[in-house]
Amino acid sequence: MNIDIDQLKRSHRQLMRLRQCFTSCYDISSSLSLEVVLDSLMLNVMDNLGAENCSLYLVDESRNELFLSLSKGPLGSAIPAGQRLKPGEKIPGRAWQERRTIHVTSEELEPGRDLISPLAGSCEVETTLCIPLMANDRVLGVAKITNKRLGGVFDDDDQEIFELACRQAAISIQNAYHHLNELELQSLESEFLRAEELRKMLLPDSDPALPGCRISASSISCKKFGGDYLGYLAPQNGESVLGIVVADAVGHDLSAGLLMVSLRAYIHSQSKFLDKPQTMIGNVNALFAQDTEGEGYFCTLFLLVLDQEHKRLRWVSAGNPPALLYDPAADSFQELKGGGPCLGCIAETEYQVFECPAPAPGSVCVVATDGIYEASRPDGGMFGAERVKEIIRSHAGQPAEAVRAALLDSLQDYCGTEERDDDITIAVVSFD
Q1: Are 131 and 51 in contact (CB under 8 A)?
Q2: pLDDT greater at residue 191 or residue 59
Q3: Which InterPro entries match (predicted)?
Q4: Higher pLDDT, 111 or 97
Q5: How far apart are the first and last CA of the chain?
Q6: Burial of 248 (0-12, 13-18, 19+ CB in 10 A)
């Protein structure tokens, strides 16, 4: 029996290369750390292919450039850290742009066009192999090896092993990016939760007591961070006057919530003018407009002043839906309207105060942002003002807490489990 020693050696060499491929792929895919994945790719490639130099570039999609992430070897270590290449620039840029493996030997090199390292001109470059790192038809980066430690050029087997390692590395890089995105999302979610907790801390922790009426209010966010505001204001020199403020900033994200934090500070800084509601809201608007001028941010606001001392209601509106005042004896609704613009639109705005006599016993007043009126169900139908009025009418004579609960329960039944598009802030006053 004749044994082909050369064929046996080739088979053994291929088997060893195959084992190296499995080992390399395992090492490269064993971590979700981008730094570990890149380092593992570089070490395995330089070790298994006997490469003298290795450079790894990643794609910066925001600038449409490659940037040097890692580089080793006599030539590789001389490449400036963070070096950037445009599509088609040098060999890595060509591999990225053409989305293919580029294998260049010394006879094919054009130093001015191809070489990157400042030492390349004084050191002989015998062979260079450059492969795009692709996953799901997306180029994530480029890997390049230059020269073999024992001399010679990279052959077809070297290219096959290098391509296999690069394919596995691209998948691992993509997984590392996904992992980083997930960690960033979790961190952002945590920040949102902490911010929302802070916002809730700034809301009233209980409803105030005022002779002759009962008050119940709540503010419910539709997103992770609410953009509505609810607050109570009481003058320092008396207990028979109370201000109720509801406000709604444009948007439903972190920016809206931050606007509400600023608005709350401005409202409390001007609460000394509660006896002159139009002056108070005018001052608040001037302060708020300084923050939002030219940025397109604004908010609606309604201030209701319960003045038991002078037996009257007073209010100022800045673009908010009118409050609803129901008199069960006459079975009639009065809309507490106001014509002022939203806060933040015009810095120098004069607001008008309106008033009416104190409501009769049994009356109910509801102040709310537009979230309750515009809440919709999957078929697109809105909850609407008429439905709000019907619930108020059917629960008149009950405490404010019961009226508020009935409104929110009916809203939940109407909208179902669908996520709401707007925050809902509502304050109910029942008069004894």
Answers
A1: no
A2: 59
A3: Bact_Sigma-Reg, GAF, GAF-like_dom_sf, PPM-type-like_dom_sf, PPM-type_phosphatase-like_dom
A4: 97
A5: 113
A6: buried
